[in-house]
Amino acid sequence: MKRVLTVMLLALAVLAFGFNTAYAKEKKKVAVIKTEKGNIVIEFYEKDAPKHVENFTKLAKSGFYNGLTFHRVEPGFVIQGGDPTASGAGGPGEADLKKAYGTIPDWVKKDFSGYTLPAEIKMPHIDGAVAMARTQNPEKRSSASQFYICIGPQHFLDGNYTAFGHVVEGMDVAKKIQRGDKMLSITIEDR
Q1: How many CB atoms neighbour CB 97 within 10 A?
Q2: CATH superfamily membership of 27-190
Q3: First-to-last CA distance in the chain?
């Protein structure tokens, strides 16, 4: 009986070690926005906004965001970037999306405002929330590239825009961003 108990305890210890090792190896996908003022690290809501996360990561990996500016800065509200025209009305063209995807997925649609993504509205606009901008449309489809970072909680935006991540490092950097500051690069990493 003592030997059986020892074997069972040993088996449980091995199982616990295996579980802890697997859990410790679970990495999260992040985006690192490199600016002249420092880095902003975003952790994604992959389960809640998978198409937005996929789109953002593919554009980032293709180099689309490199060198673009934060064209809108509203202290205490948001910083916004991802518009190649820096006007607030631009987005990726067909060539940009083909470079990022190869073949543009059918859920990325072109309409009067450019390319858009289907709404995946679930997460709240907490301090540091990262969400996609959009034009007024009844489906609440998002811009295919313009995103904003909330400077402070902005819960009046909840239910209207897709938040697809949140800042986990660099909120101090986000608060220093001024209109025209560049995103030197955005890289995607597993941490």
Answers
A1: 24
A2: Cyclophilin-like (2.40.100.10)
A3: 45
Asked if 53 and 46 count as a contact pair (C-beta separation under 8 A), the reply is: yes
pLDDT digits (tens, 9 = 90+) for 122-134: 999 999 999 999 9
Please give the full DSSP string across 54-67, using - where no structure is assigned.
Answer: HHHHHHHHHTTTTT
Q: Which of 191, 164, 188, 190 is nearest to 63 (CA)?
A: 188
The token pair that represents 165 in the structure block: 């991540």
Rounded-to-integer distance, Cα 41 and Cα 33, Å: 6
The rounded distance, in Å, linking the Cα atoms of 54 and 57 is 5
Record the tokens describing residue 12, joined without a space: 């449980």
Q: Identify the H or E element spanning 52.
A: helix 50-62
Name the packing angle between helices 94-101 and 50-62 (round to 10°). Answer: 100
pLDDT tens for residues 20-71? Answer: 554 556 789 999 999 999 999 999 999 999 999 999 999 999 999 999 999 9
Instruction: Give the helix, strand, coil percentages of the chain, each rounded to 5.
Output: 30, 30, 40
With tokens 């400077």, the residue in question is 151
Q: How far apart are CA 144 and CA 126, in angstroms?
A: 22
Closest CA to 161 of 186, 184, 141: 141
**Which strand ranges, in their side-by-side order, compose the sheet holding 147-150?**
70-74, 78-81, 147-150, 129-132, 163-169, 38-44, 29-35, 183-190
